[in-house]
TrEMBL record:
Residues 258-281 are annotated as: Disordered. One of its GO terms (molecular function) is class I DNA-(apurinic or apyrimidinic site) endonuclease activity. It comes from Streptomyces monashensis. PROSITE patterns: FPG_CAT (PS51068), ZF_FPG_2 (PS51066). InterPro entries: FPG_cat (IPR012319), FPG_N (IPR035937), H2TH_FPG (IPR015886), Nei2_N (IPR044090), Ribosomal_uS13-like_H2TH (IPR010979), Znf_DNA_glyclase/AP_lyase (IPR000214). Pfam families: Fapy_DNA_glyco (PF01149), H2TH (PF06831). Gene3D superfamilies: 1.10.8.50, MutM-like, N-terminal (3.20.190.10). This is DNA-(apurinic or apyrimidinic site) lyase.
């Protein structure tokens, strides 16, 4: 799934393209909304909430979308060729006099009353890039299940909203612990650093075209996607393993020297079967 900074950027693109303008094109290409026509309605704006996007229209309507693994919103100018994928992958088209927003491969697409938005995002924890950010509440949410592996707790959007698979791995590296360390075993000083560190990383990257966590010119990320290359700090080969309940692939990366705590194979590097392309959470 996308990270919170990616969703924030998508919301900004949609807002800048559509907000304050009346729709001249409204084309929903999913059976549930095939007869819906929003033509003539003014777009009030688009806001992100964690990994969710809420596009609001006059008349009290909201389009709720979620990118999941493969979804994307693309914005095009008048006469510009659409390049987000084949036509059969388009789920919705929203156009104004000078801009067209095209939603590709959106697995979540729901039109609801604006007053009902809490029904779809009310379960989320504090948003790392939102006005409701509360580091104390986020930490309390994480510590509420002390036996849970830290990596799984970070991905649970009910604890704090916006962290995906990339930031999960990078945060654990920066904290010096493995993603399999129980949350309750995280030293108190590092636990206190976690929420502000996560916020700092996402805020630093929300305006960048390429995500960067290292501060280094030639290397963008410390561990994510680097296995089996050497750790940037200690030169130990970075490891990779899936984390979670097995319902979806969650490739997780860590350095067995720089990070302490349990891991699937903490000993010498093991040869693993070739993997397909990785997708960020």
């Amino acid at each position: 799934m996308p990270e919170g900074d990616t969703v924030w950027q998508a919301a900004r693109r949609l807002h800048e393209a559509l907000a304050g303008k009346a729709l001249t094109v409204s084309d929903f290409r999913v059976p549930r909304y095939a007869t819906v026509d929003l033509t003539g309605r003014t777009v009030l704006g688009t806001v992100p909430r964690g990994k969710h996007l809420l596009t609001r229209f006059e008349g009290g309507l909201t389009l709720h979308t979620h990118l999941r693994m493969e979804g994307a919103w693309k914005v095009y100018g008048t006469g510009e060729r659409w390049r987000g994928g084949p036509a059969h992958q388009i789920r919705v088209v929203l156009g104004t006099a000078d801009r067209t927003a095209v939603g590709y491969r959106l697995q979540v697409l729901e039109l609801l009353r604006t007053r009902e938005e809490e029904r779809v995002v009310g379960h989320l924890g504090p948003d790392l890039l939102g006005p409701d950010w509360d580091p104390d509440r986020a930490l309390a949410n994480l510590l509420a299940d002390p036996a849970r592996p830290l990596g799984e707790a970070l991905l649970d959007q009910r604890n704090l909203a916006g962290i995906g698979n990339i930031y999960k791995s990078e945060l654990c590296f920066l904290l010096g612990v493995t993603p399999w360390l129980p949350v309750g075993a995280l030293p108190a000083d590092r636990a206190e650093k976690l929420p502000p560190l996560a916020k700092r990383l996402l805020e630093a990257n929300r305006d960048r075209p390429v995500r960067q966590t290292t501060g280094l010119h030639r290397h963008d990320l410390f561990v994510y996607g680097r296995a089996p290359r050497p750790c940037l700090r200690c030169r130990t080969p970075v490891r990779e393993a899936d984390q979670g309940d097995g319902s979806r692939a969650r490739p997780t990366y860590w350095c067995p020297t720089c990070q302490t705590g349990p891991a699937p194979f903490p000993g010498p590097p093991q040869r693993r079967p070739p993997r397909g392309p990785h997708h960020p959470g």
